[in-house]
Amino acid sequence: MGTPITIEELTAWLAEQNWSSFAQSLARAYTQWGRLSEKQEAAARSMHAKCMARTTAREASKSATPPPVGFYCTPDGTFYRVQSNKTKTNVYAKELVTRQVGDRPYWKYVGRTPFPILGSNLKITRDQAATFGHTHGHCLICTRELSDEESVMRGVGPVCWSKQGWE
Asked: HSE-up of 13 (CA within 13 Å, CB side)?
């Protein structure tokens, strides 16, 4: 970590935060009284640290090379779908959300956040997709319920199976 920010730098930063009336009120208090209480300063430093961490994370995800379009599974078992936008000019990720076994899972937009951790070595395998289907009763790829006998046996729907090139 770098050198701590001075109180003057901190209050100047607070004054620029037009999204937060609280931050601006702290900057005004410092200007008026020449100091902040311990709790006010702690709150201001915490706000600054969170904003800087968020900015750093956002920049890291922007600079990360997007993985190829496809489906991924992280070591902790989280499934991601990387797909192109409608104009095919950018890619983004969705995370698979499952509530309870039997409920239909769905893909929730998460943007570029997971890009730094996704690599070609994390592409889903046929076995991972099948295990998900056997456990949840839904196709991992399209999230539809598995109903016909062959799909239930494979754990993946027939269209999704062929689109993934699994034989």
From this structure: 15
How many angstroms separate the CA atoms of 138 and 49, rounded?
42
Whole-angstrom Cα distance, residue 78 to residue 48? 31
Phi/psi at 84 (5° precision): -85, 150
Output the six-digit token pair for 71.
């489906």
Q: Residue count of the chain, please give it.
A: 167
Is 92:112 a contact under the CB 8 Å cutoff?
yes
Which neighbouring-strand residues pair with 73? Answer: 79
Task: Write out pLDDT tens, residues 29-86.
Answer: 999 999 999 999 999 999 999 999 888 877 776 666 788 899 999 999 999 999 999 9
Gap between the Cα atoms of 113 and 67, Å rounded: 12
DSSP state of 138: B
Residues contacting residue 78 through CB under 8 Å, at least 6 positions apart: 95, 96
Amino acid at 19: W
Q: At 16, which helix (H) or strand (E)?
A: helix 7-16
d(CA 111, CA 95): 9
DSSP calls for 57-92: HHHHHHHSPPPPSEEEE-TTS-EEEEEE-TTSS-EE
